[in-house]
Amino acid sequence: xxxxxxxxxxxxxxxxxxxxxxxxxxxxxxxxxxxxxxxxxxxxxxxxxxxxxxxxxxxxxxxxxxxxxxxxxxxxxxxxxxxxxxxxxxxxxxxxxxxxxxxxxxxxxxxxxxxxxxxxxxxxxxxxxxxxxxxxxxxxxxxxxxxxxxxxxxxxxxxxxxxxxxxxxxxxxxxxxxxxxxxxxxxxxxxxxxxxxxxxxxxxxxxxxxxxxxxxxx
Length: 218
Hints:
By secondary structure, this protein is of the alpha/beta class. Helices cover 50% and strands 10% of the residues. The chain contains eight helices and five strands, in the order H-E-H-E-H-E-H-H-E-H-E-H-H. The longest helix is centred in the middle third of the chain and has 20 residues, at 113-132.
């Protein structure tokens, strides 16, 4: 399925509407939000939903959150966009992983089952909030990253849509140079770009890789 094409078809169907549909956009960080907001702001009445209990440590969570707030205040298309910050509850993330029964998830590479459970956790919370507060659509900025599995993300969104009254906006925001555009925004707005996905396991993987690279040089 061409998720970008599906999104464009949905957007095209909305152009003739007098009022913009309400979209709850799950955001993982400021840099990823940039190109996504630019892409959608003309077609939706957007609210940003910052729910990321996976991020470790807490100071990293706060840094990414604050970068998002700073960017939206500076970026003209985001000036009137409201941001909702859901509670930071790392236990939600660890419960979703169920590592006692699946210890291998702690060491697997990114884009595997661990990441899938993390996508599902965050999208489920987004759908629940959207339904409770009468939004028309839900989507996430996650697919803008080349390190995120757009197929898994959109499949989860499709399944959750069946259980809720809110529609899922299919997307693959990395397409049409979306990721490149986010890099350009990061440079233009001097944004902090993290060097790991967010969870302690991705941080450990990065640390191990860097250690191996240093050992090779010596």
